[in-house]
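Quick one: structure tokens for this chain, please?
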Amino acid sequence: MKDFLFNILPRLKAYSKELDITENIIDKPWIWISGDGTTQKLVFRRGGLLLMIDNGDVKTGTWEYIPMLHSFLIDRGIDKLLMNHQFLNESVMLLKKDGAPSSEILPFVNELNIPTLDYVKYLNDLTTNDPNKSESFTRLPEKQNDKQLSLWSLNGSETLVNCNNLRYGVEPSFTSTISTGTGPLSDGYYLISEEAYQMIPNADKLGRKLYNIKEGKLKEEFYYECFKTKFKGRGINIYYKHKSIMQSLLKDSAVLFSDTFEEVSELRFSCAFLTVLDVRNGRVISESMF
């Protein structure tokens, strides 16, 4: 069954609704179906309370959605799990335990919408675009050679786009044209999903990328792993441009405020390693020693 979910997930991305993730899961009976077929009913209550129900017996835990990680932190009392969000609509949620292989995807089924818990049939019907299904999902109009791609902004919001000339079939390239159903994608910094990133050969060695997209084009790439610092109490993230001992780690890096993810326009400040950084228009233009 895990192979079915792994293979169907790229097609499901086109049907993933742009919903408020937390609002969509609250106070609904989600049936977690494990790999051996056992089930557990979970109810995510507002405020972070988690109800775990088994034949009428109830245990409590806690849950939290972390937008920056696109993940749920689930505390069941006996363990704590970081679960990466892969797909969500009103009926099915797919999660993957952080660090697990990309193929090990866990289904959560809304018992109210699919009383039989037959999520396989449901997902097959969904991706074949059955016109008789009760829910309506909207695909973007596709152009020749375009592929559907989910991009995530740093604040955790997801946008479905059309994109051509994909690298490894999952990420934009510098020759890509990136558009929504109404025009070019809004300028900003974006990520591909964790699941898509894991499909890239040698992904862990290459490092996850942060894409600076302007006017529907990929203008710059940075490493999503960043150096975190503060200036006058306000958080600042520095996203590395280079990761080579032959180059400065900080030169040309993107500098964004950690609360709004806006570019730091102009600043001179000291950070770690006795280094002073000059920042202009969201980029480190120079660094010097104290």
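The CA atoms of residues 15 and 137 lie 6 Å apart.
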